Amino acid sequence: MTHTEDSSHHTSSAVLEYVWIILGALALTFVLRTFVFNVFTVPTGSMLNTIQEGDLLVGEKVTLLWDQPKRGDVVTFRSPADEETLLVKRVIATAGQTVDLRDGAVYVDGEKLDEPYTEGKPSTSLASQPGAKITDYPYTVPDGCIFVMGDNRTNSLDSRFFGPVPLKNVTTKTLFIFWPINHARGL
C-alpha cells in the first residue's frame, strides 16, 4: 500500500467513525425524547408567576408508566381542543376527589388548599363562559382523570373550562425550567 492509499484509507475510516457517532447521537436523542424526557416551550401566561411565557421546561415520562400525577404536580398534556398542542397546568385533584370553588378559593374534599403560587388571584368558576364543560360545583373528578388549573387563575383556560383531563392525555411530569438561565429551577 502506498502512502497516498494509506492516507485515503485513514481519512475514510475517520469519516465513517464520525458518521457512526452522529447516527448514534441522533438515535440516543430520539429514544430519550420519545420515551424518557421532553423539552418544550411554554406558549402562554396561564402559569404565571411560577412559569413565564417562553420558558423552556424539561418533563419526564418514565414515572407515568407506573405512577399517576399527584396534587401539586405540574404536568403537560394534550389539549382537548387540539391534540397536537401541549398545555402545562398544575394538578389540583385526582380521580374520586371533589373540587369546590367558593369565595375565590379552591377546596378539595372540603379542605381549602394552600396555594401560594397563585399570589392571591381568585379561583372562580368559568361556568358562565360559552362552551364551559363544568357548570356545577362541587365537582367530583371521574376515574382515570385529573383536574388541573393554571397558577394564573384569572388568565387560564383549564379544567374549570374544558373539564377533567384523561390520564392517557398526560405526557410528562414537569421537572424544571432550564431556560432562560435566570428562571432555571425545579418545579
Automatic annotation (TrEMBL):
Gene: lepB
GO BP, sorted A to Z: signal peptide processing
Catalysed transformations (reactions): Cleavage of hydrophobic, N-terminal signal or leader sequences from secreted and periplasmic proteins
Keywords of the record: Hydrolase, Membrane, Protease, Transmembrane, Transmembrane helix
E.C. number(s) listed in UniProt: 3.4.21.89
Domain of life, per lineage: Bacteria
Protein's name in the database: Signal peptidase I
Enzyme class: hydrolase
Species of origin: Lancefieldella rimae (strain ATCC 49626 / DSM 7090 / CCUG 31168 / NBRC 15546 / VPI D140H-11A)
NCBIfam families tied to this protein: sigpep_I_bact (TIGR02227)
Domain Peptidase S26: 16-179
GO cellular component, one term: plasma membrane
